Amino acid sequence: MTTTGRRGRRPGDSGTRAAILEAARSRFSTQGFRAATVRAIAGDAGVDPALVMHYFGTKQGLFVAAMEFPLDPAEVVPRLLAPGIDGLGERLVGFLLQVVDELGEANPMLGLVRSAVSHPEAARMMREFLGEAILDRVAEAVGETVGADRPRLRADLCASQIVGIIMARQILELPELAAADRATLVGAWGPTIQRYLTGSLAS
Q1: Contact 182, 144 (CB under 8 A)
Q2: CA pair distance 182, 50, nearest whole angstrom
Q3: Does one domain contain both 109 and 44?
Q4: Which of 73, 139, 169, 185 counts the highest number of beta carbons within 10 A?
Q5: Alpha-carbon Rg of the chain, whole angstroms?
Q6: Final residue before a domain boundary, out of 32, 51, 66
Q7: Residue 183 burial class via C-beta count within 10 angstroms: exposed 0-12, middle 13-18, buried 19 and up
Q8: What are the C-alpha distances in Å from 45 to residues 13, 17, 41, 51, 183?
Q9: For 76-85, what is each residue's pLDDT tens digit?
C-alpha cells in the first residue's frame, strides 16, 4: 500500500499558524506586499495555500497579522526618555538600529517600508507605529520639557529621517552604510534627530 501526501491542515493548529506567520514576515520583509504571494508563503510554511486563507481570510489579513511588532511602545518610549533630553537623538537611532539588526530579514519595519508605497494599509500601519505610537509621544514629551514648538512636525521630520535610514541601509544596501558599525551611524545620525526634536525650526 502506498500513502499519498496529505494536503491541508497540519497537526497542531498553533504551530501551523506560527509557521505561516514566520514565512509571511520573511516574504513581506524581503519582497513587500505586492510581490509576496500567498502561494509562495504557503510553500515556505509547508502548507496548502487554502490553509493560509483558512487562518487569515485574505492576503491583507495575513499581512496585518504578520506585521505585528515584537515590542511595546508603552515600554520603549519611557525607556528612551528616562535619561533626559540630552542624547535622546542618539538613543533613538541606537534603538532603531538595534531592533533592525536583531530582527534581521523578518523585521516588520522592513516589510512596511517595502510595502508602504503600493499598499495603503502598510502606510497606515507605519504611520501608526512609528509616528503616533513612538515619535509623536517622544516629541510631545520633549515639547513639555524644553518648550519645543510644533511637536507633530518634529515627529514627522524624525520619521522622514528614520524611514530614510532603513531604506538606505537595509533595502538599498548602500555599501558604506551597510558596512559601517552601529556606533559610527549613531554618532552621524543622532545629532540630526536631536536637532529635529529640540532645535529651532525657523530659518
Answers
A1: no
A2: 43
A3: no
A4: 139
A5: 20
A6: 66
A7: exposed
A8: 13, 9, 6, 10, 37
A9: 899 999 999 9
Do 126 and 44 sit in the same domain of this protein?
A: no
Give the chain's domain count. 2
Q: Do 38 and 124 reside in the same domain of the chain?
A: no
What pLDDT, in 10s, does the model give residues 102-111? 877 667 788 8
Specify if 116 maps to a domain. yes
In terms of Cβ atoms closer than 10 Å to its own Cβ (0-12, 13-18, 19+), residue 14 is exposed
Cβ atoms of 26 and 35 within 8 Å: the answer is: no
Q: Cα dihedral sign for 80, 101, 39, 47?
A: negative
Residue 22 belongs to domain spanning:
13-66
pTM of the model: 0.75
DSSP state string for 78-122: HHHHTT-STTHHHHHHHHHHHHHHHHGGG-HHHHHHHHHTT-HHH
